[in-house]
Amino acid sequence: ATDGSGTGYAVGDTFVMDSSNVTLYAQWTINDQVPIITTQPQNTAVAEGEQASFTVEYTGFPEPAFQWQLSTNNGKRWNNIADANSDTYTTPAATSKMNGDQYRIILSNEHGSVTSEAATLTVTTAPGAEVDVSITKTGEYNPEPNTITWTIIVSNAGTVSAEGVNVTDNLAKGTRLASIDLSGVEGASYKVRGNAVDISIGQLANGASISFTITTELTRATSPVDNTAIVTTSSYDTNLDNNTDSAVCSW
């Protein structure tokens, strides 16, 4: 501060005011800074069905923007997580499929950016948690136009959701795929490998069942025709005896 005579005063100085007006000025400087991470996101373990939170601590000015990223293949590829734009990210309810997923955050401002170390999510199975997927199938002959429609039902009698559920249907010799109806299975897809059809179902909740149909055209096959389907899951299946079923169709 400076008085009317031009005398300067520093913080802590004492001066006597007379009847004159005194104007005080204060000045400080804020140094801009590229973001610096002071505390990295930490590895986190939660039970299946719980949510996990990852947090970063930082310095930097101006305030940085945040973007959390997810890797499901041990850091080989990273993808931005939609709407994950704060210093803390909370996952959806954890499933066994999320075990081993990695999370990191990018902080950026006008001076630069910095990427955190990866934090790994461990998902533990709750006591008593079981997956038990099963498959059943039936076949119905259609004289016109000489086809068989196979109905396949997949169920999960376990206590938790089954992840990565997949069905492989091995078409009988002398038949070929005419059509497949997955309209009742949300998110399902399929691909054909020679005489096999692979149907990807994804997650199947505990207590849930889904059904779909495969129609095969009879090219050289004669009665009876048998067809086998197998269901698998990336979760630990406690009962493999009901993962395969065959049906015979006669006319």
- Total individual domains: 2
The percentage helix is under 10%
- The poorly predicted ranges are none
Give the beta-strand count: 19
Protein model, in words:
The chain is mostly beta strands and 251 residues long. It folds into two domains: 33-124, Immunoglobulin-like; 133-249, Immunoglobulin-like, CATH 2.60.40. It has no helices and 19 strands. The protein has strands at residues 33-39, 44-47, 53-55, 57-61, 65-71, 79-80, 88-90, 102-109, 112-115, 119-124, 133-142, 147-156, 162-170, 175-181, 189-193, 196-204, 209-218, 225-232, 244-249. Strands 2, 5, 6, 8, 9 and 10 form a six-stranded mixed β-sheet that branches. Strands 15-16-13-18-19 form a five-stranded antiparallel β-sheet, with no helix packed on it. Strands 11-12-17-14 form a four-stranded antiparallel β-sheet, with no helix packed on it. The protein is elongated and about 115 Å long. It starts with 32 loop residues before the first strand and ends with a strand. The model has no long low-confidence stretch (mean pLDDT 90).
Fill in the keyword field for this structure.
251 residues, mainly beta, Immunoglobulin-like, 2 domains, five-stranded antiparallel β-sheet, elongated
